[in-house]
Amino acid sequence: MKSSRCLLQLVRSGRTAGRISVLLLSPATSQLNVHHNQQQQVLRHFRCSPASAKSRPVPARSVDEDKTNRTKSLATQEDLFEQVAKETKTKATFNQVIDVFTKRDIRRRGHVEFIYAALKKMSEFGVEKDLTVYNKLLDVFPKEVFVPRNFIQRMFNHYPRQQECGVQILEQMEGYGIMPNVETKVLLVQIFGEKSHPVRKYQRIMYWFPRFKHVNPFPVPQSLPEDPVDLARLSLTRIANDLDSKITVYQLPCTDIAESGEEIQLPHIVGIQSPSQMELLAKHNPNKPVFVEGPFPLWLRKTCVYYYVLRADPTPPEEKEEEAYDPERCFDYPLQLDLDLDRDLGDDESFDVDDLDEGPVFAMCMTSQGDQVTLNQWISGLQQNNPILGKVPTLFRLDAGTQELQEAAQTEPGHSHPPHPETQREDPQSDEDLEAVEEEESRRSHGMKQ
């Protein structure tokens, strides 16, 4: 009992001493202690769950701000290409830009924007069909950073922005017909993993490209001839359906000096005609004219050429003569079959086929100048093997030439050109028509109001 009383007295004495010491403290020291405690409370960190972090309000961004940020990032990367390759744009300078970017930062910050800018600039540097350059672009990605570690990351499209950028590289390769190699696969596996979207895109390309490689029976060569005469020969052989057709060069491109002393550039004239076309032209009625029509465009990869056609109107049905069928003309592929097959009551013998007779085509040609003078030279060259052309009237149905089409494509909206005299004559008529249309619209509007 005595010991317990002694302990109670000691406790009471300790409490009173603490109160006295607090009362004896100065107000300055108390303020310092309070300020120190507030700093400790501010510096204390609390751990929170990811759900609470997601629930925090995020300041909304407008669409314009996101677009401006993307354009700024792309502009900075494009400026890098312009800074490094100021004088010449070649494969060496393009690789130099990639090396500058990779050595500038070990972590490769902004590599996605750089790759998008590089894909846009590849055509300017002439490396859009180079497989080594595409592999070097894939090497810009950091390695083993975007590889999913578990099935959940793989299921939820781990690092989607980087995977989309890798797929974009493969799609551009697919567009230019470039087959990936083993190095491409190794890089994709190191960057994204084996079950990623870029690797699946690579597998699809490797599956379908060999199957469609030789599907075109008339392949276009990768490099087209630079000589216009050789290019015209290649184009006319692709258009002509007869292997017996013969190509004739009527005039080569050259320079001639006129009587006034000026140099004149003479265009090339290349024509093609088959023996069957010569027979059709020999049977043509001299009282009916033939027509020279064109130009018609023909695209060979990125090159567009124009050709002209010598043709006639279709023969009316009452003037057509049916040729006698020769059964011994071709034994391998018979032109007519007389088969007596049993037909059912439900078989329909009538066919809805629209036969459109466009008329015979007698010859074709290509030239760099599609004026009437140049095409007259072609017709005069055809008269050597087709003397009936001297008796048949020839009419020209020419559209806007290649030079006029190029000038129309090169005109800018800011420049003004003088109007054609025919259009000037039609201007007052068009104004009157516009006034009449406005009057009709006003009448209709009044009628609707009533």
Structure commentary:
With 450 residues, the chain is an alpha+beta fold. It is 49% helix and 12% strand. It has 16 helices and eight strands. Strands 1-4-7-6-5-8 form a six-stranded mixed β-sheet, sandwiched between helices. It has a two-stranded antiparallel sheet with strand order 2-3. A hairpin with a 5-residue loop joins strand 2 and strand 3. The longest helix has 29 residues, at 421-449. Residues 16-63, 65-72, 403-409, 411-430 and 444-450 have low confidence and may be disordered.
Q: How many extended strands?
A: 8
Instruction: Give the count of helical stretches.
Output: 16
Classify the beta-strand content into a percent band: 5-15%
Spatial gap, N to C terminus: 115 Å
Binned, the helix content reads 40-55%
Q: Main beta sheet: strand number and arrangement?
A: 6 strands, mixed
Whole-angstrom Rg: 41 Å
Which descriptor suits the 3D outline?
A: flat
Give me the strand/helix succession: HHHHHHHHHHHHEEEEHEEEHEHH
Structural class: alpha+beta
Low-confidence stretches: 16-63, 65-72, 403-409, 411-430, 444-450
**Spatial ordering of strands, largest sheet:** 1-4-7-6-5-8
Average pLDDT metric: 76
